């Protein structure tokens, strides 16, 4: 049986030249360089090109000219002459072989800054080095609403990088996410979010309480729960009991009051275009999440249900309670229904009752979360734009805008 994997070419003992061109960018630079090199019949081993504020740096690693195609000296003179005619500078370095292989252990380090300072960037780079990592590539993912930069790192364990960089992120007030490199990152196909203070800016129970005139009482129960005097289920029952007798017409009023978090629509729209499935789990109520599912085109939604009898809230909830353990359980259930391994899921939340879900997911993102949640989640985002989560998945702002600029296709719903 023949092998179906091609053998990569080896340039281990082959004389090679690193040709570097830099100067003002304009159309035709890349084509012109390789037209010039074509006269010497060299093979291309590697290419890198970068354009920053109208200045191009183009590097070509090529084999040295072979007998009968010219000498290295002639190639150097020809390239320098061409570069000078273009108003560019050229540098040519002789050597042997290809680039050094990257170290084992590869990670993507995404840094979100608002702004990103030279001091914080230096600290992050130094921290990567201290873990034994090497920065192979840096590029900008987005310039707004935050500056997002990705470092491709090799030679360090992902877990070690994550621990080291978390300290620098906290010290310098930036957000840093570290994920392992490889196909798995591109294959993440399910994103599950908390609702209150994550997908939306509000706490739904407080919106209901405002209509019932019991905001202070609900806030007191919430405070007791945060102090650990009540668990989530106890606090849920205690708060919902205060809504007893409220006319069911208030449900529609609360729906109208709900405010999506900035960037929520962009996040969900882009994820759906990428082929991801998206769901929400909430300690809030289906009376709101069902409407959000329909409005935003979500694939999954689960929450608690307020009991309504004879047109009024009874002060009770029905069905299985969605609490901290329930959210993690639902993440697993959604992943199973979506046919997605748990390691390829992303969970986003802000509260302690999201922690089991965040830690069960392949990537858990603490979004503007309490300090305890930020410490225990895989990574944290502390800017008020939910679509910045896209950058943690390697999606650039330009890709988001390009997708938005396409004409709406038949049957596509753009929330």
What does this structure look like?
The chain is an alpha/beta fold. 38% of the residues lie in helices and 27% in strands. Strand 2 and strand 3 form a beta hairpin.
In short:
The chain is α/β, with parallel strands linked by helices. It has helices at 29-38, 72-85, 118-130, 158-172, 183-186, 204-212, 215-226, 232-241, 250-257, 264-273, 286-296, 324-338, 355-360, 371-376, 389-392, 397-405; strands at residues 15-24, 44-52, 55-63, 89-96, 106-113, 134-142, 147-154, 175-180, 190-193, 277-285, 300-309, 312-318, 345-349, 363-367, 379-381.
Residue windows where pLDDT falls under 50 for at least 5 positions: 407-415
Overall average residue pLDDT: 90
Question: What's the total count of β strands?
Answer: 15
Straight-line distance between termini: 52 Å
Helix content: 25-40%
What does the radius of gyration come to? 27 Å
Cα shape: elongated
Strand content: 25-35%
Largest β-sheet summary:
7 strands, mixed
């Amino acid at each position: 049986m023949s092998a179906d994997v091609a053998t990569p070419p080896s340039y281990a003992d082959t004389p090679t030249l690193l040709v570097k061109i830099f100067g003002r960018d304009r159309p035709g630079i890349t084509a012109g360089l390789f037209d010039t090199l074509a006269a010497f019949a060299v093979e291309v081993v590697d290419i890198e090109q970068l354009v920053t504020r109208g200045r191009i740096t183009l590097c070509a690693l090529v084999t040295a000219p072979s007998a009968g195609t010219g000498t290295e000296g002639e190639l150097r003179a020809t390239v320098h002459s061409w570069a000078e005619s273009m108003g560019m500078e050229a540098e040519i370095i002789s050597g042997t072989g290809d680039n050094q292989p990257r170290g084992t252990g590869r990670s993507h380090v995404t840094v979100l800054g608002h702004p990103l300072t030279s001091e914080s960037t230096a600290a992050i780079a130094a921290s990567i080095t201290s873990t034994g990592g090497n920065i192979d590539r840096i590029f900008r993912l987005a310039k707004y609403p935050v500056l997002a930069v990705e470092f491709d790192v090799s030679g360090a364990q992902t877990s070690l990088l994550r621990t080291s960089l978390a300290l620098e992120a906290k010290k310098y007030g930036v957000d840093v996410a570290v994920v392992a490199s490889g196909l798995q990152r591109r294959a993440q196909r399910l994103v599950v979010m908390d609702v209150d203070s994550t997908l939306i800016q509000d706490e739904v129970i407080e919106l209901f309480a405002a209509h019932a005139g019991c905001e202070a009482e609900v806030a007191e129960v919430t405070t007791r729960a945060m102090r650990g005097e009540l668990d989530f289920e106890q606090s849920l029952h205690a708060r919902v009991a205060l809504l007893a007798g409220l006319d069911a017409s208030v449900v529609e009023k609360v729906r109208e009051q709900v405010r999506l978090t900035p960037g929520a629509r962009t996040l969900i729209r882009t994820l759906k275009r990428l082929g991801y499935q998206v769901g929400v789990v909430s300690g809030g109520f289906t009376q709101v999440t069902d409407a959000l599912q329909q409005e935003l085109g979500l694939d999954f939604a689960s929450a608690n249900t307020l009991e309504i009898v004879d047109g009024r809230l009874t002060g009770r909830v029905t069905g299985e309670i969605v609490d901290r353990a329930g959210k993690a359980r639902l993440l697993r259930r959604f992943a199973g229904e979506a046919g997605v391994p748990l390691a390829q899921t992303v969970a986003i939340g802000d509260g302690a009752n999201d922690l089991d879900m965040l830690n069960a997911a392949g990537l858990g993102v603490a979004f503007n979360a309490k300090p305890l949640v930020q410490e225990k989640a895989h990574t944290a985002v502390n800017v008020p734009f939910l679509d910045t989560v896209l950058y943690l998945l390697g999606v650039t702002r330009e890709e988001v805008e390009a997708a938005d600029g396409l004409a709406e296709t038949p049957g596509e719903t753009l929330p």
